User: Fold VIT1/CCC1 family predicted Fe2+/Mn2+ transporter from Novosphingobium hassiacum.
Amino acid sequence: MTRLHLQPERHLVSRIGWLRAAVLGANDGIVSTASLIIGVAAAAAKPADILVAGAAGLVAGAMSMAAGEYVSVSSQSDTEEADLARERAELAGNSDAEVNELAGIYVKRGVDPATADTVARQLMAKDALGAHAHDELGISEMTTARPIQAAFTSAATFTAGAALPLGIVILVPGHLLVPVEAIASLLFLALLGSVGARAGGAPVWAATVRVTFWGALAMALTAGIGKMVGTVV
Ligand SMILES: [Zn+2]
Assistant:
């Protein structure tokens, strides 16, 4: 999650952090697992081998998503902690300078100096660190980085996404697998793209076309490589 600037549509913005992670995780799960299955199937593998490859891909992908998200969100969280520690020290050191600093931020945003000074003093009397964190550093409860939560969300949504193309391997007979897998996975992707865009208040068509295009490209590439390698070995 990034540090979001405050916008009037706060209820939408507050959803974007986890929504982005969830859609991205499920999207990755579908694209990478479907591509893997199509690539292995195109190399003329046996159904049991395709299933093993798909299941291994699901576990590897979920762990990789969780680790990646944990590392990236942790480093953001460390940066926030360091910023807050510095701010805490500044507040303890020179309280007057900090009042002026906060008031200056409000003046820049259009508040007159006398009012800005009053607002800064009143906010700091209640929660000085909170006021500086929010208006100076852009850190609020809503945008605080949460590594464990981010890692879990990514792994869970990747697994949910990967389960769809994997389920097709179990349900569809071998000779139909490649076309059914490709079409069904693209439909899942399109559906996910439109649901994600709708929930986030973004343009639906653009998002749907975007995810479907990248999914189709990934599957076409792995199908080609699978066929090539399958012919060689
Ligand atoms: Zn400050």
About this structure: The CA atoms of residues 46 and 228 lie 17 Å apart.
